[in-house]
Design brief:
single chain, binds threonylcarbamoyladenylate, about 325 residues, alpha/beta, about 30% helix, globular, Rossmann fold, binds magnesium ion, eleven-stranded mixed β-sheet
């Protein structure tokens, strides 16, 4: 078990010594290291058992800090940054020499984000270096949205967990960059496509589902719970699997009864925001439950529903 608390000075000291600290953000908890210290970044990959071809996001406290590490010049990206930072947005920006190649897996762009969490913003100001932080889960598993989730899986491998309570968005950041002059979304996340389009007009979706490791981070079998997860019409799945003990992940009003099984309703009032907050927590609970299999339904494919459906499809992919 890692020591857990709200001691920002202690977290900053550890990070400057090259140690690992789990940090709260509005999206999910991150496993942070000093991004300018190659050895520290290396230990992030080791703790997560993450392949080196999957690059890390760096976290900074404000827009002024970005120019030390990367170039934010594109007018549309600037507009997104000004509209949504601090918040669940990550921008892919041309990096300069100060960012070690291990952070970006040798790519010319670095992923940058200003997270929206008071403890982590204070920590970032205090450390004065960018923090490289992937989600604080073993590679391929569901992201953590509480300090306890981090402790359960990575507690023995990290030096401190900064406890900032439950994440208020619950889905990872939306990743955006510019390719061939077009603004492209590479990962759906906590900032909806609709909200971005209000600011900068149509964006292009380039969500990779190929499972090709050269397309960073968007490996198909990601967010995979250990128990088999099936997606579809819940009533049909229930009939098909009536001899099995199931965990059911659903959304909104239920039009069936299921006394035998454990039901996790992402949002009884059909709020996509509430569903986003609950998704990873419920996937974990379903995984830890006595159920043999998990069944889930897709949500409306709009707003945060798109990112939730993306995660459910990846979780179901075996
Ligand atoms: O909300 C989030 O983004 C959280 C919190 C902790 O900030 N972080 C997070 O990190 O989800 P991670 O490592 O689990 O996912 C980052 C994704 C990966 O898919 C990675 O491949 C992609 O970002 N990525 C990072 N740097 C990249 C780069 N230079 N070019 C393309 N993709 C990049
Ligand atoms: Mg992750």
């Amino acid at each position: 078990m890692a020591q857990t608390g709200k001691n920002i000075s202690h977290a900053a000291e550890l990070l400057l010594e090259g140690k690992l600290v789990a940090i709260p953000t509005e999206t999910v908890y991150g496993l942070a290291a000093n991004a300018l210290n190659e050895q520290a970044v290396l230990s992030v990959f080791e703790a997560k058992q993450r392949p080196f071809f999957d690059p890390l996001i760096i976290h900074v406290p404000d827009m002024e800090s970005i120019c030390k590490y990367a170039e934010l010049k594109d007018e549309r990206l600037l507009k997104l940054a000004r509209s949504f930072w601090p918040g669940p947005l990550t921008l892919l920006l041309p990096r300069n020499e100060s960012i070690p190649g291990i952070v970006t897996s040798g790519l010319d762009n670095v992923a940058v984000r200003i997270p929206d969490h008071p403890l982590t913003l204070e920590l970032l100001k205090k450390v004065g270096v960018p923090l490289a932080a992937p989600s604080a889960n073993p590679f391929g598993y569901v992201s953590p949205t509480t300090a306890a989730h981090v402790n359960d899986q990575l507690g023995s491998k990290i030096d401190y967990i900064l406890d900032g309570g439950e994440c208020k968005v619950g889905l990872e950041s939306t990743i955006v960059g510019v390719e061939e002059g077009r603004v492209c979304v590479y990962r759906l996340g906590g900032l909806s496509v609709e909200d971005m389009e209000v600011q900068i007009g149509t964006v292009e979706l380039r969500i990779n589902n190929s499972g090709d490791p050269k397309a960073p981070g968007q490996l198909k079998s990601h967010y995979a719970p250990i128990k088999p997860l099936f997606l579809g019409d819940l009533e049909k799945l229930l009939k098909l699997k009536d001899n099995k003990k199931l965990a059911i992940i659903c959304f909104g009003k239920l039009n069936f009864k299921s006394d035998m099984n454990t039901v996790y309703n992402l949002s009884e009032k059909a709020s996509l925001q509430e569903a986003a907050i609950n998704l990873f927590k419920f996937l974990r609970l379903a995984d830890l439950s006595g159920a043999e299999e998990v069944i889930a339904q897709l949500l409306p494919d709009e707003g945060l529903g798109r990112a939730i459906n993306d995660r459910l499809k990846r979780a179901a992919c075996k």
